[in-house]
Amino acid sequence: MSKVLLQTKSLSKSYKMGATRLKVLNEIDIAVKYGEFVTIVGASGSGKSTLLHLLGALDKPDSGKVLFQEEDLSKLSSSALNRYRNSKVGFVFQFYHLINELNVLENILMPAMAYCSAIQWLRVGGKYKKKAMELIEKLGLQDRAKHKPYQLSGGERQRVAIGRALINSPALLLADEPTGNLDWSRGQEILSIFSQLHQQGQTIVMVTHDQRVAQKADRSIVLSDGRITE
Ligand SMILES: Nc1ncnc2c1ncn2[C@@H]1O[C@H](COP(=O)(O)OP(=O)(O)OP(=O)(O)O)[C@@H](O)[C@H]1O
Ligand SMILES: [Mg+2]
Q1: Does the Cβ of 5 fall within 6 Å of ligand 1?
Q2: Domain ranges, residue 167
Q3: What does the pLDDT profile of the chain (230 residues) look like in tens digits?
């Protein structure tokens, strides 16, 4: 049995809406093992994105905790938490969220540059550029390295976003509807990339409506009414 990478304990989250509170997640317990490919499914509004954001420390729970490599995220210092968001996890969103002023290579390098001073970058920049070029090749973007996001198709943009998510070799890849904005065959290309990454040992948690993903993933977590129904 392989080890647990990520775990939640009694994780709850609600949103304040005027005078009332909307309870979105109600004492959620999940565990994801190293190398697993897990999907999160459920109706629109069931809390899938909310859960993914808590796993990636993009938001904080009301109660309960997220443990990553047995460490409680709520106990991390703010710099350790930034390191977690930047290099322990990689995030892929439905709408890419690339930086329009930067080209493909620069977008992919962003998370690597984020923690370097100019002096440090002189030392390690070459190594990261080499890695970024390898990712670009692997993602089939070799003829697009100098393109800006607006000069790319949706599928190409999503491949850039995957490259950006992988530049720091995160232990965990989180994806929120990565095929949600793409047509069938562009979606298929993106799914095969995730599937390939999984075969190479990457741990993945993906929110999706896409029926095809279920065949590629190890298992699904089904959310409804703030709880898991499996
Ligand atoms: N910042 C917020 N303030 C108030 N309510 C919110 C906020 N973010 C999300 N919600 C509500 O919480 C519920 C869960 O939202 P969430 O985005 O997690 O759903 P989802 O399962 O990802 O849905 P979809 O499949 O449509 O993306 C929804 O009812 C939503 O309206
Ligand atoms: Mg969502």
Answers
A1: no
A2: 4-228
A3: 689 999 999 999 999 988 999 999 999 999 999 999 999 999 999 999 999 999 999 999 999 999 999 999 999 999 999 999 999 999 999 889 999 999 999 999 999 998 888 999 999 999 999 999 999 999 999 999 999 999 999 999 999 999 999 999 999 999 999 999 999 999 999 999 999 999 999 999 999 988 888 788 999 999 998 999 86
Nearest CA to ligand 1 atom 7: 15
Q: How far is it, in rounded angstroms, from Cα 174 to Cα 205?
A: 5
Q: What is the CATH number of the domain that holds 34?
A: 3.40.50.300
> What letter represents residue 123's amino acid?
R
Closest ligand to the CA of 40: 1
- Overall number of domains in the chain: 1
Q: Is 48 in the pocket of ligand 1 (CB under 6 A)?
A: yes
Best residue among 26, 41, 50, 179 to mutate for probing ligand 1, ranked by most atoms within 8 Å of CB: 50
Nearest CA to ligand 1 atom 27: 44
Q: Where are the alpha helices (DSSP H) in the chain?
A: 48-55, 78-83, 104-113, 118-138, 154-166, 184-199, 211-216
In angstroms, the CA 71 to CA 227 distance is 24
Ligand approaching nearest to the C-alpha of 46: 1
